[in-house]
Amino acid sequence: MTATQIKVAIVGVTGYAGMELLRLLHAHPYVQVVSVHQTTATQETLDQTFPHLQSLYKITPTPVDPVHIMQNADLVFFATSSGVTKTLAAPFIAQHFPVIDLSGDFRLNAKDYAQWYHQPAAPQALLDQASYSLADFYTNDKSYIANPGCYATATLLALAPLAQAQLLDADSIVIDAKSGLSGAGKSLTTASHFITVNENMMMYKPNQHQHLPEIMQQLQRWQPSLAHIQFTTSLLPINRGIFVSAYVKLKQPLTPKAIDALYHQTYADKPFVRLMPLDTFPDIKQVVGTNFTDIGLTYNPITHYLTIVSVIDNMIKGAAGQAIQNMNHLYHFEETTGLNLIAQYA
Ligand SMILES: NC(=O)C1=CN([C@@H]2O[C@H](COP(=O)(O)OP(=O)(O)OC[C@H]3O[C@@H](n4cnc5c(N)ncnc54)[C@H](OP(=O)(O)O)[C@@H]3O)[C@@H](O)[C@H]2O)C=CC1
Ligand SMILES: CC(=O)N[C@@H](CCC(=O)OP(=O)(O)O)C(=O)O
In angstroms, what is the span from residue 33 Cα to ligand 2's centroid? Predict the structure, then answer.
């Protein structure tokens, strides 16, 4: 059966994640990008502003007009900064128009959002219409999809097999996550200057990161007895990639082979999760440019800690790629459509 072609709009196309969506959707056989949007009006076509798009996208970005988008497209992606969709989503939600939102605005309940994003949340009536969708465990039944955050994706996929089997020891979950600079978006800050980031590494937002409640929310859906995790984030001097080291104890003793088997069982039918042989670990470069999450683990029989490493490309699996994976599910396309990517080796 040939899948129908769908028409999509991208809001936030001039940002890092929006531009990555445009790049990946260009190769998607069932998608046509019909409009792109940025904050302000411009006379320039996309390929005039962005030379790498020369001859590919002679389309002019416009400010968001929900009526126009809904008349011309079948689906809209929002790759906008946090705080934008909570004010722009209402007309789309009122019409049950499909939205995939890459921002954090619809991932959390109102109380957690206000606490962790330091701004008021979207109205409850709108939040009720959104579904958080970790694409590898897609169960969404709503037209508004809240695409997961980058750190949350890598962390949740590292812990999913154990949490789903109720095996995590609640008091011993330590997550040390590191990201490349593209995760911070295109706006320049003192912390993102080349001189500050290059040949350097720094921890930021320890115990304060907005993905902490997002991770807890999903972990508790799998293993309700969990109450807290220790979560830190650091900046790496690379463009793309997330490296998560998770250190956990289990509620009951399992042999390394049994743990490995559990991971294989959980991810047997998940095309975007790849497992390393036991006691070996993935590196960031093997997933950069792809929608894969690569996971490795090892067990320490002295401390009884299990170390799990997971790596993703923050721009693809952590944002645009996962959004397309969610779109593929929503439209019943093959999950991997448009996402058959191999990392650059050298
Ligand atoms: N970068 C990453 O690795 C990841 C990002 N995300 C999330 O995805 C979203 C986008 O991230 P990123 O691309 O890094 O951010 P950027 O800061 O690079 O881009 C933000 C984009 O949003 C646009 N925008 C802001 N306000 C409006 C508005 N009112 N109307 C239309 N467009 C608007 C900006 O347009 P303009 O050109 O006019 O400024 C810009 O294109 C964020 O919510 C981020 O948290 C999630 C996972 C990973
Ligand atoms: C390196 C870096 O700065 N990363 C960003 C990730 C932001 C993000 O993805 O924001 P959402 O909350 O919308 O998911 C950060 O740590 O805040």
Answer: 26
